[in-house]
Amino acid sequence: MLQKIYDWIDDRIDITPIWRDIADHEVPEHVNPAHHFSAFVYCFGGLTFFVVVIQILSGMFLTMYYVPDIENAWKSVYYLQTEVAHGQIVRGMHHWGASVVIVMLLLHTLRVFFQGAYKKPRELNWVVGVLIFFVMLGLGFTGYLLPWDNKAYFATQVGLEMAEQVPLIGTQLKILLAGDATIVGAQTLTRFFAIHVFFLPAALFGLLAAHFILIRRQGISGPL
Amino acid sequence: MHKGKGMKFVGDSRISAERKPNIPKDYSEYPGRTEAFWPNFLLKEWLAGAVFLVGFLCLTLAHPSPLEGMADPTDAAYIPLPDWYFLFLYELLKYQFASGDFILLGMLVLPGLAFGALLLAPFLDNGPGRRPHQRPVAVGMMLLGLVSVVWLTYTSAANVDWESRAEANKPIPASEVTIDTEHPGYASYENSCLACHGAELEGGAGPTLVGIDLTAEEIATIAVDGIGSMPADQFQGTDEELEQLADFIITVNEAAE
Predict the structure, then answer these.
(1) A8 pairs with which residues across the strands?
(2) Is it the case that residue B203 has pLDDT exceeding 80?
(3) Alpha-carbon span A36 to A38, nearest angstrom
């Protein structure tokens, strides 16, 4: 039955080459912890992606309750924490995932750096990876404001003051982020929400796709 | 992909009528103990992922995510603190050479140089050698950066009293109690109860009276006889005033629900 469905689809959209492209790639001995335990360092990248998936899923569930509005943002988070079934776990996963993803990214970066895996021909993939790191830090910064508690508000205010001190474009940069030259308020919250939920994830998905396509193209770097 | 004359297509599409067999590649010719990603290695990877997930969920359950009180822009006493992964930048800006007149140095130049070098690492360290001892400059700079970030983060975090911070900023939902001072029982409340139970029944020396599950008679009894550490005879007045007082407390409770 399943085979028939597969054949029916394959007959129409020629899915086999696509599927074999995804499924067929070799895992060399030196990256396989089953053969050399020290190869667990090669897991850091995959685990980073795993945490990113956790972040996406838990974030999707958080938006079911979260309201990006200064009157209700804190209340909706408080409600989620105290009243909603498993709300505390979902928010906890998103909160701790944000930290764990930075840790895993750092470990992955250090593995690639100290092994010199970014050397020719893999320079571009390193650049893409560092851009992913920057996007992640941006996601951390914009996500910090969203619960609209004191910690979020004042940390964001400091961040925006720093943005304002950038020469030439400082004021414009602050207005772009905060929606106003002086007020950190309703506009700021909706802008940070939009950046956190739409702009940066869009950039992240594009960069992740490029990262993975390049890995498949170039293969994993050989043993030292 | 197969190309050329004599190709057959499915209908009028560009899909080849010839089916490719759906069989995995043979890895026996590959060096060492190379194995297939699908499905052999993916199963092991899932196992590692499951172990990681269990650890992660334990962390989540053991430490519920923190939430402070609702943002209050007028709270001038609040000391802002970024998330831990920005602490090193925050700490850097406390140094004399990175703040005040030199703020751009601390805010843009130093982090810009560090992160710019990280971004362009493959072009700065472009020799053929991959081993760390073959590229001492690159490895040295990375270690220097790493040590400074760890040190800055540590000094910043070590000076914060996390527990008293959390204690001072507990999340308290805004009071939604409306006090009807025109209520006949309010005068009795003001005279007999307000000193300990607060102007909005929020509590003080005594517990809050919002959200109590008591009948009017029980409230009246407590007002006269006391309960727990509350002494008797707090209420001084007529029986009618006592009835109105109990009704007042019940009314506020019903409105707050």
Answers:
(1) none
(2) no
(3) 5
Quick one: tokens of B177? Answer: 């109690």
Contact criterion met (CB < 8 Å) for B83 and A157: no
Alpha-carbon radius of gyration of chain A: 21
Q: In chain A, whose CA is at the least distance from the CA of B82?
A: A155
Residue B38 near chain A (CB below 8 Å): yes
Q: Which residues contact B89 (CB under 8 A, 6 or more apart)?
A: B82, B107, B111
| All residues at 6 or more sequence positions from A119 whose CB lies less than 8 Å from its CB, including other chains | A221, B122, B125, B126, B128, B130
Contact assignment for A47 to B82 by CB distance below 8 Å: no
Q: What is residue B3's predicted lDDT score, i.e. its pLDDT? A: 67
The structure's pTM equals: 0.83
Query: How many C-beta atoms surround the C-beta of residue B46 within 10 A?
Result: 13
User: Is the C-alpha dihedral spanning B74, B80, B82, B83 positive or negative?
Assistant: negative
Q: Is the dihedral angle over the CA atoms B218, B222, B223, B224 positive or is it negative?
A: positive
Q: Which residues of B touch A161 (CB under 8 A)?
A: none
Predicted interface score ipTM higher than 0.90: yes
What one-character DSSP code corresponds to residue A36? -
Per-residue pLDDT tens for A113-170? 999 999 999 999 999 999 999 999 999 999 999 999 999 999 999 999 999 999 999 9
Contact B37 A17 (CB under 8 A): no
User: With a CB-CB cutoff of 8 Å, which residues 136-195 of chain A face chain B?
Assistant: 137, 140-141, 144, 147-155, 157-159, 162, 165-167, 184
Which residue from A14, A27, A122 is facing B34, i.e. has the nearest CB? A27
Average pLDDT over residues B62-91: 90
User: pLDDT per residue over A2-35, tens digit each?
Assistant: 999 999 999 999 999 889 988 888 899 999 998 9
Structure tokens at B18: 């010839």
Mean pLDDT of chain A: 94
Amino acid letter for position B101: D
In this predicted structure, the answer to whether residue B150 has a pLDDT above a threshold of 60 is: yes
Q: How far is CA B127 from the centre of its chain?
A: 43
Contact A125, B94 (CB under 8 A): no
Of all residues in chain A, the one with the smallest CA distance to B16 is A14
Amino acid at A146: L
